[in-house]
Amino acid sequence: MKYTNSIEIALPLEKTVQLLSDPAQLPMWLRGLVLHEPVSGVHGEVGTKSRVVLQSGKREMELAETITRREPADLHGIPQGTVVRFEREIVGGGMWSAARDRLTEAGPETTLWESESEYRFSGLLMRLVGLVMPSAFHKQSQQHLEDFKAFAEQGKDVREEAK
Description:
Layout: E1 2-9, H1 13-21, H2 26-29, E2 33-40, E3 49-56, E4 59-71, E5 84-92, E6 95-107, E7 110-121, H3 124-132, H4 134-154, H5 158-161
Antiparallel strand pairs: 1-7, 2-3, 3-4, 4-5, 5-6, 6-7
């Protein structure tokens, strides 16, 4: 299963990618994040493997994330016209997924974030979920983009909604 989501963020490209790549900011916009810790490498750098724990309702999922691409490596002083790319593979719970994010300048103070997601399922239950509920994955991905936009533009913290 493959799909693409996109959103415009009312912040310059460099500010957007710095917020997006800062591990301290993740809990504020990544709904359900319990833990995101590198087990090898440095957060955000290519080759880094991390343990990720997500909570969805009463269900907790543990996943392994590997950063497969980050361009440019230095997110400071990004030249105009640069396409910033973040890519990662996530494995766990009967699934493999790849996220390929492209961030571009949509205007002087606006960033376009396009996120391509790909999923492959193993095991009968996860294959069934993938067949029956593909829109749930697409909708959740869009929610992450919208949560980041609200955080980046307005300082909204998804953890405040849970209280």
